[in-house]
Amino acid sequence: MTEAASQTPTQFAELEDRKIAYRRFGKGIPLVLNIRFRGTMDSWDPLFLDELAKSFEVVIYDYTGLGASTGNPSYDRASLVKDAKDLIDFLGFKKVVIGGWSLGGVVAQKFTATHPELVSHTVLIGTAPPGKPEVSGERLFMETAMHPNNGLEDQIILFFEPASEGSREAAKRSLERIESRDADRSPDIPGAVFMKLLSEAQDRSTIYPDPEGSEMAALAAGPNPVLVVSGDHDIACPIENWLPLTKKWKSLHLLTVPQAGHGPHHQEPEFCAATITSFVQSIR
Q1: Could you read off the pLDDT of 88-117 as tens digits, one per residue?
Q2: Among candidates 101, 143, 103, which has minimal Cα distance to 123?
């Protein structure tokens, strides 16, 4: 029986200049997941991960210098891609499904464009496509994300749909699952560190979205299929920016979760995991 995500111990990839903290569970095709803005390994919903682990060898990890990883942290996209590449090399994977949520989805896109030979499928959750967005995210997202601590009400605003009672209830259940891990948790990212990283990334225009769309052509014509999972009211990365691309990208699949926000996989963990599994197993 596969060990539950909430019980899997943290391991470390001992690299030349740093240690990358990671957890690995399940059996099957390797699925490497990149976490969101201000997130750590313990920001994933364990039920979503457990459902994925029925069909995949799931790997989650903390970016350099954040959570339980060591080194100098950066939200520079190239640095985050290097983290994923170094970890994949350390684990000896020759081909992976690369995925990510929010900022992690941008990492997955850039990884796919940079290392296409390592990627079979790309899974993007609650994220933005390359290029300047036609529809901007709502100011409420960043205002809420800047709070020192994001409790249940903040989580509802950031990742769910406050106008839906069902979504609000799903947020409560998800947060309870996330908090169920009572030991060996990744440390939260301190507010001062987070603000410094955000400021540096914004100054260099290296955080998402990719304003120049430098990966657009590679992803549009890429040989591997792409799945986008989005809530119908994502206040950070509006789904409207993906709609025009469905007619332009060679293999773009777009799943919309109704009455959902920036964390559709936390609202509907079993459905989203089943869709990702079917996508990887069925689409070549």
Answers
A1: 999 999 999 999 999 999 999 999 999 999
A2: 101
Looking at the predicted structure, is the pLDDT value of residue 231 above 60? yes
Number of structural domains the chain divides into: 1
CATH number, domain of 275, equals: 3.40.50.1820
58 with 5: CB under 8 angstroms? yes
Alpha carbon distance 114, 132 (integer Å): 20
Residue 208 has pLDDT above 60, yes or no: no
116 found inside a domain: yes
Residues 6+ apart with CB under 8 A from 260: 160, 161, 164, 167, 231, 232, 233, 234, 267, 268
DSSP 229-249: EEETT-SSS-GGGTGGGGGTS
Would you state the structure tokens that stand for residue 176, as one six-digit string? 């309870």
Q: Which residue is listed with tokens 């590679």?
A: 218
Helix crossing, 152-159 with 165-178: angle to 10°?
Answer: 120
Asked if the peptide bond before residue 9 counts as cis, ω within 30 degrees of 0, the response is no
Residue 54 belongs to what domain range? 11-282
Residues 61-80: b if buried by 16+ CB within 10 A, e if exposed? bbbbbbbbbbbebbbebebb
Q: Residue 3 falls within a domain, yes or no?
A: no
Residue 123 within a domain: yes
For residue 64, give the 3-state DSSP assignment. Answer: coil
Overall pTM > 0.90: yes
Cα 178 from Cα 172, distance rounded (Å): 10
pLDDT band at 1 (very low <50, low <70, confident <90, very high): very low
| Burial (CB count <10 Å: 0-12, 13-18, 19+), residue 31 | buried
Would 157 be classed as within a structural domain? Answer: yes
Q: CA–CA separation, 23 vs 38, rounded Å?
A: 18
